[in-house]
Amino acid sequence: MLTYTFPENLHKPMYLYLYENIRNDIINQKLQPNEKLPSKRTFAKNLDVSLITVENAYNQLLLEGFIYAIEKKGYYVSPLEFPDKPVIEKTYIEDTKAEQYRIDLKTNSVAEHFPFSTYSKLMRQVLSSQDTSLLVRPPQLGCLQLREAISKHLYDFNGMNVPPNQIIIGAGSEYLYNLLIQLLGHDVIYALEDPGHTSISKVYDINHIHYHYIPLDKYGIMLEPLQHSSAKIVHISPAHHFPTGITMPIQRRLDLLKWANEHQGYIIEDDYDSEFRLRGKPLSPLYQIDQHDRVIYMNTFSKTLSPSFRMSYMILPKSLMSLFQQKLGFYACSVSSFEQIVVAEFIKQGYFEKHINRMRHYYKLLRDDFLDALRQSDIYDSIKIKKENAGLHFLLEYQNNISDIQIKEKAKAIGLNISCLSDFYHKPCNLYTLVINYSGLSRDNISLAIQLLTKLLK
Amino acid sequence: MLTYTFPENLHKPMYLYLYENIRNDIINQKLQPNEKLPSKRTFAKNLDVSLITVENAYNQLLLEGFIYAIEKKGYYVSPLEFPDKPVIEKTYIEDTKAEQYRIDLKTNSVAEHFPFSTYSKLMRQVLSSQDTSLLVRPPQLGCLQLREAISKHLYDFNGMNVPPNQIIIGAGSEYLYNLLIQLLGHDVIYALEDPGHTSISKVYDINHIHYHYIPLDKYGIMLEPLQHSSAKIVHISPAHHFPTGITMPIQRRLDLLKWANEHQGYIIEDDYDSEFRLRGKPLSPLYQIDQHDRVIYMNTFSKTLSPSFRMSYMILPKSLMSLFQQKLGFYACSVSSFEQIVVAEFIKQGYFEKHINRMRHYYKLLRDDFLDALRQSDIYDSIKIKKENAGLHFLLEYQNNISDIQIKEKAKAIGLNISCLSDFYHKPCNLYTLVINYSGLSRDNISLAIQLLTKLLK
Description:
458 residues, 40% helix, homodimer, 16 helices, four-stranded antiparallel β-sheet, 16 strands, alpha/beta
């Protein structure tokens, strides 16, 4: 007779366990179609469980159609038609493990100095207010408190005048790129900086969006190739181009605005880490000097607060807001209310500005220490440092003829995570230049970093 | 001579204010190309500010290219070429305000009983642990703690065996629908339930995805029209179809699995509120009985915890995991680590299950009270209640001939927010049936709700 063993430390109701076992035996066809099941009373006695346990299990099986009942006769396995048995070997994917390096000069890291206690104080404040806005779906554009805080921050920080109802909060920049694709349509052609961030092109690829790579000169993206392309939307980071660190001068900016206006196109201005420019004040965004509603401004808290935050925002020109409501108005906001409200308080109470200033100061010292150590090293004569004010990285040009692929292999072998300038070019090339992101270093491991760099370049 | 007034309560450095004013005058072409600016010393004296203020402002303007310097002569406005002046009238969009209703029988609301103090205790616990995982970018699939907690919850709750590394956390179901489109390709054809949730088709529309509507019979989505369509992916909610409340019996489930296997297609099983079925245990998901890796399971915390949370998850069949890594491996996780870790603790420490049970109990009582009140009302003889165990809503069929459009207009006029069953059909029709979502009611306003319903249907 059908029997099951109940484990001693069962973490679920017994009827559920019994139900699952019978169900699985039906699915696995151990129990045959129309096979009679034991009567409830006998089954309970045999299994040494209460009658109600068996009754509940049978009722659930009945409800789901796994068994049927005939009055005064009993319970039977339903004659179910199953799909064919699987023949394909199932594959199993392990979580990919991050590689361990002795020194990481590649990954951005702004986390270590996150003001935990302040943030936690604000969280408690927000929670204890038990504001009802914590429990309702955030408005589509994002919580008004946060949009107001961002608007004020942008004004104080670089003189931008942005009404809160043109700001859209989203779960990361990639999420917002996707929204923009859906907003501007799949048929329009984009232009990307070459070199530039590689993740943007991946978002376009996966969405089957056509785009052209446009080269840079010393002022940033070049106008002539852009004009000769069929692109109508150009994606740039004028304040601080990655990885070259180029700051686009005002005339090139005006030329780009002119191009956008003439082509009825748009400029996506990615201002993702203008806060960390180490010299001078942050530059006026294109958005600020645009008089024709052709600039879409983007920025993120993942770089300034911590990569663990998934929160970015974009500012649409007024002319795109009604299109946004019309085409994408059905989407819910993708960031939770609580997190938005806490970040809003963080900005409003002045902690965000303090945090940025503290971090800039910290990175300036870190960079100076690192550059000093480089200057005193054996390799200093054979390298050239460039764009050291660009942000959290600089360029290091070296004078031996190891190819970029080889130098990365060599780096990996000695436990150094590093990128080459050529990694950010569309076409493979050798530029004999490393992109050194020092944000993950600490004073304690600068000398190890120099050691490994020396080993790498000697 | 050029002059500016400094406001008394200036919230930014004076040099910044001065810089912005000059910059704006250059952009607005109040200052002419090659116009000479006052010397630093004279300007400082005239403005009654320190020399360093003017120096800093000029330096920033120089850096950005707004002005140029001629040695021993002074500073001049750069001869910039501006885009043409705007001619288009700018439009301005106000934040859309939610309409105010006296009674809302349309909107889902599970928020009021959110365990604030427990959640806040967990947040403090997580924060005080200062775990480094709070500060790093969450793994692509989501934080392991949360995926493990979900895996265990699914096992305890409905016997599902899901390895954590097939679970993907995302910022809401719409976000995950978008990921699935990118994963499965833009060319494949989808099938949707008719009637069904309307937001899914909007996501497909905006992505230019082809889909067919498939009608339902009393067992759920119909197989024959599905087989005759060219669809390879079907999007269903078998545990609890919205809005009809249909629970798909096992044979239809098996037939669908067979269909998916034969067509090498996929079933997207949207289990979005199976937790709130008010009778019996939650039904075994299709995912659980699928033996051919053809089911993608989706669920969300926005329904069970609070709509203010933007957190959903999906479980991919093993066969799709490697495709996911290959095609979408570049995307960052879209939910912040902190929120994920707190929800993980909420589940692991048993609060999630308690919360669900408490809410089910609460809704059961609320529904019973509401139905009792309906039974005692004047309209009870002329209406029929259906599917009252479906979840947080039931269907109310009425016997007068007012069209669905008219009844909604009448409802709006008396301050009642309500939907018709026909709202969820692809083609306009009159079904004389309301979908009553009672989750936002409280015992205090049941009688008002009955009053308004009576007024509406009499």
